[in-house]
């Protein structure tokens, strides 16, 4: 296929370029691959199901299912393994020098979280992280959001002899959920001898891989053999500030979209996933729903039925489940908040990885060998 995207899967089909191979981008590419001439641009050769990453840190074999080569589900399109660096009215410029033509563009770059390019290297990274945990007697986790709480739960479940300290700069854990969920998560961690320190920050400016002494904003000195930073990642839009879409970014760096998930003021550019300015909890289920709506709307435009496009509606209530180890979790529903084995049964055993694989048309548990 030539570098301008003229050949390939269906010469008469509309050209769709999807930038970003996370949950949202991968599902949309899969949905449209037999309906349009789709090019998926991603810096890496695989999709990582993000909600499996913390389990993979303590159980590297879990990553065999949560790391999926794009070629497994995206068989009828073109994959470019290189970052996008610029956008014009009709092309995406890729770091490797290619210019990819589009009729429709979908930006789904999520959060800026640099990862190894190959699946094998990512698997090796998890093995190395696991070895760090095994060799450590004491572990510091910085950040008390869902990632920090879930990582603490995973480590304390598999390595009960480790001294774990979790430091959070807010007044309570899991601030995206209600106070009841925060309290239940705190009690669970404390009952398992995790030292939780709230309203404190760790100075990470001079921290390196071998650092074992950490200073807090309250003057405390915390000693740990290894540490993990779970404070979230910036929105993956830094590259857009140099493109035509810079005027479509809000002050937080998110793309402003209308109800149909088109970037405001642009008829052929869509945005889905964490990079949008939609006011909702940025969760995997939301990314899946947005991918479904955007795919349907592009199909409607392509067949001349724009009037039948669907509007994306964020969920009216916040439902969230945060795992606490392998068998327990804390869950917030519209009418109640619970913790224990029931929400753990819903999420913690598999972390929805099997469900995500099924959405991609893959077996939930069986993994092809490469």
Automatic annotation (TrEMBL):
The keyword Oxidoreductase applies. It comes from the Eukaryota. Pfam families: Pyr_redox_2. One of its GO terms (molecular function) is flavin adenine dinucleotide binding. Gene3D superfamilies: 3.50.50.100. SUPFAM superfamilies: FAD/NAD(P)-binding domain (SSF51905). GO terms for cellular component: cytoplasm. InterPro entries: FAD/NAD-bd_sf, FAD/NAD-binding_dom. Residues 15-285 form the FAD/NAD(P)-binding domain. Keywords: FAD, Flavoprotein, Oxidoreductase. The keyword Endoplasmic reticulum does not apply. Putative FAD-dependent oxidoreductase. Belongs to the FAD-dependent oxidoreductase family. This is Apoptosis-inducing factor 2-like.
């Amino acid at each position: 296929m030539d570098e301008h995207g003229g050949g390939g899967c269906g010469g008469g089909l509309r050209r769709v370029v999807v930038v970003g191979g996370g949950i949202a981008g991968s599902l949309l590419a899969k949905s449209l691959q037999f309906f349009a001439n789709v090019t998926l641009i991603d810096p890496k050769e695989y999709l990582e199901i993000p909600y499996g990453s913390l389990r993979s840190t303590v159980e590297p074999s879990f990553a065999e299912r949560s790391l999926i080569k794009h070629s497994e589900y995206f068989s009828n399109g073109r994959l470019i393994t290189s970052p996008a660096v610029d956008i014009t009215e009709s092309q995406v410029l890729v770091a490797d020098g290619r210019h990819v033509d589009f009729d429709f563009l979908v930006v789904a770059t999520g959060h800026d979280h640099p990862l190894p390019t190959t699946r094998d290297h990512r698997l090796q990274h998890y093995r190395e992280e696991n070895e760090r945990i095994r060799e450590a007697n004491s572990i510091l986790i910085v950040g008390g959001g869902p990632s920090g709480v879930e990582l603490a739960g995973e480590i304390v479940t598999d390595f009960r002899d480790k001294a774990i300290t979790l430091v959070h700069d807010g007044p309570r854990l899991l601030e995206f959920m209600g106070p009841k969920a925060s309290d239940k998560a705190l009690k669970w961690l404390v009952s398992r001898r995790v030292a939780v320190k709230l309203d404190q920050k760790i100075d990470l400016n001079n921290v390196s891989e071998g650092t074992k002494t950490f200073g807090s904003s309250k003057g405390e000195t915390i000693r740990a053999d290894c540490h993990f930073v779970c404070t979230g990642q910036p929105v993956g839009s830094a590259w857009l500030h140099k493109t035509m879409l810079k005027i479509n970014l809000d002050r937080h760096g998110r793309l402003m979209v209308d109800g149909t998930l088109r970037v405001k003021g642009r008829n052929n550019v869509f945005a889905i996933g964490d990079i949008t300015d939609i006011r909702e909890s940025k969760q995997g289920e939301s990314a899946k729903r947005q991918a479904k709506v955007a795919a349907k709307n592009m199909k409607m435009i392509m067949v001349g039925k724009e009037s039948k496009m669907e509007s994306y509606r964020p969920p009216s209530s916040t439902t969230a489940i945060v795992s606490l180890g392998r068998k327990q979790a804390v869950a917030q529903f519209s009418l109640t908040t619970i913790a224990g084995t029931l929400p753990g049964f819903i999420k913690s055993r598999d972390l929805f990885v099997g469900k995500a694989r099924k959405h991609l048309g893959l077996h939930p548990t069986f993994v092809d060998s490469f």
